[in-house]
Amino acid sequence: MNYLDILDQVRAHVSNLFHTKKDERLIYHNLQHTEQVVKATVKIANHYQLSDHDFFIVNAAAWFHDIGYLTSCEKHEERGAAQAKEFLESKGTEPEITSLVMNCILATQMPQHPVGLLEEIVCDADLFHLGSDDFKERNKLMRREAIAFKGIDIDRHEWRLKTIMLFEAHHYHTDYCIDLLAAKKELNLNGLKEKQIKDEHEKAKEEKVKDVVLKSDTHQHELVNAERKIEIVADKKKDKKEEKKKNDRPDKGIETMFRISSGNHQRLSDMADNKAHIMISTNSIILSVILSILLRKLEDNPHLIIPTLILLVICVVTMVFSILATRPTVPPGTFTHQDIEEKKVNLLFFGNFYRMALPDYVEGMQKMMEDREFLYGSLIRDLYSQGVVLGRKYRLLRIAYNVFMFGIIASVLAFVIASAIVAL
């Protein structure tokens, strides 16, 4: 099926619905928001290099995810999924694809619980603005929309509290959005909290001052005491906030560090394997040429025997080191209860448990999750083990590349010298 043609039809259909069923109250959940979500979806999908099949699914879901607002705000995801199903079926889309599009739309319901990369991409694209520079402007539009639908004013203080609750309950799902948006999202959240604390301080101060003034103008000392109490309360809140930041940030920072480090190690391992495969393929081709063509001509050209042997040895040595770089090493796959008690085993690596019974592994994992020191110690050992494996891979690859580079030069020189001797 032609995904691009159907996606163009989806775009035109959704745009037409927003124009023909235009609701002036939809100040935020309008065609502009949908286009921004689609743009974010494309950006995330391109990072993960999705296939045409998966690219179509996430983009179709992004176009339909808020179309239900044209009918009602309540359960708009279900109506959007239903409209997507109706439209895609009319275009002859496969039932499997239609079902995946509907699941991606339903996954955007709050609180979000996406399953799989495709649903995670659509969920992160829907709330992409929480970690962007235009969050403040988008948040104002959302408040205006809520006021328009309710018909009553919503206090800024109350709206800010709900927004802070949204921030604290939400987290990005894809590693790409975590790395790209988490830091800015944290800054936006801190900005909201600072405004909230400032408003609470000013509001409390105003109320205290009014109470004191109403009682008596002669009780100036009560006013002073009230102001001092307010300042003490504000200082305590500030101290609690700073203490909470100190307690929260290290955990978040540590988790981000482990996630990024592990991802970097995995990418470096993939790069090493790709380099080794290139060397193996290249030398296999050279060996095939030597064995199938060059060796047959050595009887007529005996002066090429030594250069050919040099080239043959170089290719074999290079392949051996390249294969060694990719050859896996698998540990015994067992651990003991003593290892768990002494916190020596790393249960995050399959090589340490793949031969163990499930109850033993579950018991070990539960003990690790209950013990912060054991958990972080396992993560550290896992990172260290990945680094050791990477060091071995790149050391062997460096040897293979050096042998190949200098060997090719030596082989070419040998062929040139042999040919020159014969010519003389």
From TrEMBL:
Keywords: Antiviral defense, Cell membrane, Hydrolase, Membrane, Nucleotide-binding, Transmembrane, Transmembrane helix. GO terms for molecular function: hydrolase activity; nucleotide binding. Gene3D superfamilies: Hypothetical protein af1432. It is found in: Cell membrane. The keyword Transmembrane helix applies. Residues 26-140 form the HD/PDEase domain. GO terms for biological process: defense response to virus. GO terms for cellular component: plasma membrane. The chain crosses the membrane at residues 304-325, 399-423. CDD domains: HDc. It comes from the Bacteria. This is Putative metal-dependent HD superfamily phosphohydrolase. It comes from Pedobacter cryoconitis.
